[in-house]
Design goal:
This protein is an all-alpha fold. It has a single domain, classed as Amino acid/polyamine transporter I (Up-down Bundle). Helix content is 72%, strand content 0%. It has 21 helices and no strands. The termini are close together.
């Protein structure tokens, strides 16, 4: 399949047998809740500790990059809804090797992430139930969400709908309390003014170095947004669903991420140890003297982790199914029963559980290698998205302009700006000692996948062409 003649519905054989069991309310809430992950609730603490109040700028810059990526992905996904999402777009735009690389790299990222989320969730449960084995909680969570994804897709949609609703409710409540505290109208509090923003070293207490560390931390907190374009292929109205989700991405990022960071650094001194140790949300609620804040936020973090597990098993299975449909993976993974790729669900779940076992058996070498290899995969995926949109936008304008339901702003200028932003983040990762190994690990994995994909592409091209009228 050449990159200039790839048909629009690249993974149609698989999508044709997947059910359209996701309702619009499922898709809307997946899009809304997908922005809110455990990385926001807990991981942002390290960014605040490094950047101080300037973490707001870091999240704004990385948020701008994510908005551009989502707009590009939305344009392509609305024009060609497919369960393989950006992998399908990369294949059409660049070639089969690119679809193979982006797809399997993302599958690997999701499977390892499932294991990490299971470990995090189990850690919370053992805190509540001392003496219980962590592995038992991991096994329970794996069984529950593997079972959920083995059933009809509407079950996945229902779980994500309620998980997302709880996460959104929690963060809206937090923002409401924070705004009242900043205004000085929350009982028992006084308006902090700008003391925490300009005192204790100023707005950028650790200079540009601290801002860079905060920027890198914030970039990876945005992972998970891509799931909505994968899920859209199984929704009742894929094109309209993607269009609506992408158009509302801007205010979601601005309110949930940038708004949260602004509230936190205004209310709490950035250098307070609790920000990094307990997480910024717990630290803020404790600072305001709200009883039981720690346990409340632990419940929210647990929900965020379980939601991510559910979504990542779903996303990994659909990506694997799409890759097989395009003859880029083991045929067995693509078998669909009852509208669900059950083999892909099982394999993705087992791979995630294996990652958990490795965290017990080989925490210092193999597991650490796994963590390093996934460190920058999301950036690699974004790079493929931007390059694909650059190519496909012109092709779609020429061949089927009516499909451009969602359009990238100021094309091609903002697409090129996004690519420059990604290159800058890559350069900053290489510069920082803590992220350098992650970048190198991801680079090795990406290179290996690209070579395998290229070899497979060349083998396929060397075979005799299929008779006219038969599409693969």
């Amino acid at each position: 399949m050449s990159r200039t003649t790839a048909p629009a519905p690249v993974d149609q054989p698989a999508d044709a047998t997947l059910t359209h069991g996701l309702k619009q309310r499922h898709l809307s809430m997946i899009a809304l809740g997908g922005v809110i992950g455990a990385g926001l609730f807990v991981g942002s603490g390290a960014g605040i500790a490094a950047a101080g109040p300037s973490i707001v700028v870091a999240y704004a810059l990385s948020g701008l990059l994510v908005m551009l990526v989502m707009r590009m992905l939305g344009e392509m996904s609305a024009a060609n809804p497919a369960s393989g999402s950006f992998s399908v777009h990369a294949e059409r735009a660049i070639g089969p090797w690119a679809g193979f690389t982006a797809g399997w790299a993302f599958w690997f990222l999701l499977c390892v992430a499932v294991g990490l989320e299971a470990i995090g969730a189990a850690g919370i449960m053992t805190g509540w139930f001392p003496g219980t084995p962590e592995w038992a909680w991991v096994a329970l969570f794996m069984l529950v969400f593997c079972g959920t994804n083995l059933a009809a897709v509407k079950n996945f949609g229902e779980f994500e709908f309620w998980f997302a609703a709880l996460k959104v409710g929690a963060i809206v409540l937090f923002l409401g309390i924070g705004v009242l505290a900043i205004a000085g109208v929350l009982p028992g509090t006084e308006a902090p003014g700008t003391a925490n923003l300009t005192g204790d070293g100023g707005f950028m207490p650790n200079g540009t170095e601290g801002l860079i560390v905060g920027l890198l931390a914030s970039v990876f907190a945005y992972g998970g947004l891509e799931t909505v374009t994968i899920a859209a292929a199984e929704s009742e109205h894929p094109v309209q669903g993607v269009a609506k989700a992408v158009r509302t991405a801007m205010w979601r990022i601005a309110v949930f991420y940038i708004g949260s960071m602004a509230v936190i650094v205004t209310l709490v001194p950035w250098h307070e140890k609790a920000v990094a140790e307990k997480g910024p949300y717990v630290a803020t609620l404790d600072h305001l003297g709200i009883d039981g804040a720690g346990q409340i936020m632990n419940v929210v973090v647990l929900i965020a982790l379980l939601s991510a597990m559910n979504a990542n098993i779903y996303g990994a299975s659909r990506m694997a199914c799409s890759l097989v449909a395009r003859r880029q993976g083991p045929t067995a993974l693509g078998r669909i029963s009852g509208g669900v790729p059950r083999t892909a669900v099982l394999v993705s779940s087992v791979f995630g559980f294996l990652c958990v076992l490795l965290s017990y058996w080989r925490p210092d070498d193999i597991f650490m290698w796994l963590l390093n290899t996934i460190g920058a995969i999301i950036l690699v995926v974004w790079f493929f998205i931007a390059v694909s949109q650059l190519v496909l936008r012109r092709r779609t304008e020429r061949e089927a302009p009516e499909k451009l339901v969602v359009k990238m702003w100021l094309f091609p200028g903002l697409t090129l700006l996004a690519l420059a932003g990604m290159a800058t983040v890559f350069a900053l990762m290489l510069r920082e000692e803590e992220t350098r190994m992650q970048l190198l690990g991801t680079g090795v994995l990406t290179l290996v996948l690209a070579l395998v994909g290229f070899v497979l592409q060349k083998k396929r091209e060397s075979r005799p062409a299929a008779p006219a009228g038969i599409e693969h």
